[in-house]
Amino acid sequence: MTGLPLSAELAARARDVLAGRVRPAPARDAATVVLLRPGPEVYLLRRKATMAFAAGAYVFPGGSVDARDADQDVAWAGPSPAEWGEVFNAGERLARGLVCAAVRETFEESGVLLAGPGPDSVVADTTGDDWEADRLALIDRSLGLSDFLARRGLVLRSDLLKPWAHWITPEIESKRFDTRFFVAVLPEGQRTRDVGGEADRVIWQRPGEALELAREGEIFLMPPTHHTLGELTAYDRVADVLAARREIVTIMPRAVEIEGELRLVTS
């Protein structure tokens, strides 16, 4: 058990939390989507250095569940919220919010939309100016996912998502998330684009290559991202990832003292 060494600032906070001098921050429900294309390659965004959480880190698209994500008016195709709740050990309302957040955040942060005119179709292109206006409206919360889909006559395709993992930010962090991870394939005809916002760079990279870049210090990966990329190196094709059998086990890294140094471990 080696773990990751903590920065001096985080180590100081960790000692305060472990000693009971500081109460852990609550973890906000969130969704993250590992977007894949043949290779397989994964879509990664570099968070701006000014961000309060994970500044400079390369991450998958994702974010907090918005209150409107649990709207029961969202047009839906695929496994029901109740079925997703069973997979992620969550109530039906939260499960609905998680799936909707996954679809919404993927569109906001990559331009990819996991929705279609019907239960067996998917939008072919989302690169026009009108799509961009809707994407920006979703980001500033002047438009909700339900209204966005209804106005365009689309249904959310929950069957295009595969459950992958469940990570909770360590209690020593000042900003925490209770995040369910999904996997999805880039729909045929759609393409990602550099959409800006919280990110200043986007890349498509093979999982093993991304890990090598991290080892060389070229990119920075948070533990859940690093761990997920490591898991994906076991698969040679996107189809193999989708066919993988997954048991969703909650992982919350914790701080432990090893030879006088505080480190973050997952076991």
Automatic annotation (TrEMBL):
Listed name of the protein: Nudix hydrolase domain-containing protein
Taxonomic placement: Bacteria, Bacillati, Actinomycetota, Actinomycetes, Streptosporangiales
Matching PANTHER family: ACYL-COENZYME A DIPHOSPHATASE NUDT19, TESTOSTERONE-REGULATED PROTEIN RP2
UniProt keywords, alphabetically: Hydrolase, Magnesium, Manganese, Metal-binding
Gene3D superfamilies hit by this protein: Nucleoside Triphosphate Pyrophosphohydrolase (3.90.79.10)
InterPro entries per the UniProt record, alphabetical: NUDIX_hydrolase-like_dom_sf, NUDIX_hydrolase_dom, NUDT19
Cofactor(s) the protein needs: Mg(2+); Mn(2+)
Entry annotated with the keyword Protein transport: no
Source organism of this protein record: Nonomuraea antimicrobica
Span of domain Nudix hydrolase: 26-227
